[in-house]
Amino acid sequence: MLELVTSKNSEPVELVPIFSIDGTVYQMPVEVPAYIGLRYLKMLRTQGELIANGWVLEEMLGTEAYEALSNFKGLKAEHLEQLQEVVGKHVLGSLEEPEKVAAGKASLRPVPTKSAGRSTTRRTSKRTS
Q1: Strand, coil or helix: what is 25?
Q2: Degrees (nearest 5) of the Cα angle 45, 4, 7?
Q3: N or C: which end of the chain has fewer CB within 10 A?
Q4: How far is 7 from 51, CA to CA, in rounded Å?
Q5: pLDDT (tens digit per residue) in 74-124
Q6: Alpha-carbon distance 31 to 99, whole Å?
Q7: Taking Cα atoms as reference points, which of 13, 17, 14 lies closest to residue 125?
Q8: Is the pTM of this model over 0.85?
Q9: Residue 17: which H helix or E strand, with range?
Q10: Are strands 118-121 and 24-29 parallel, antiparallel or unpaired?
């Protein structure tokens, strides 16, 4: 029989950078509690991908990062798709190279943006807060 007991002491959570906005870096946990993966799977099955992805993104990023992202006027559909893909795979434990996530090198691609009438790729510097 498997006996599960709630832990009395909470250990510090190791975080990994997931995105930045104007130099402010936002992070998510490196290790995902199994209950989040189970809830995500249930929501995918019962409520659909859109609701499940929104919930897991907020759950993994935390309220502050989720609010910053949702209030960023420069957010493009491509950015959101990348974040949802990385977070979803991370939650389900199916990243091809988990050491990249642990090292802060998740597979987020820069998205071309328009600047002064020409196409450029915007990259922000990594600055920890």
Answers
A1: strand
A2: 105
A3: N
A4: 30
A5: 999 999 999 998 998 888 884 344 455 444 454 444 333 333 333 332 333
A6: 12
A7: 17
A8: no
A9: strand 15-21
A10: unpaired
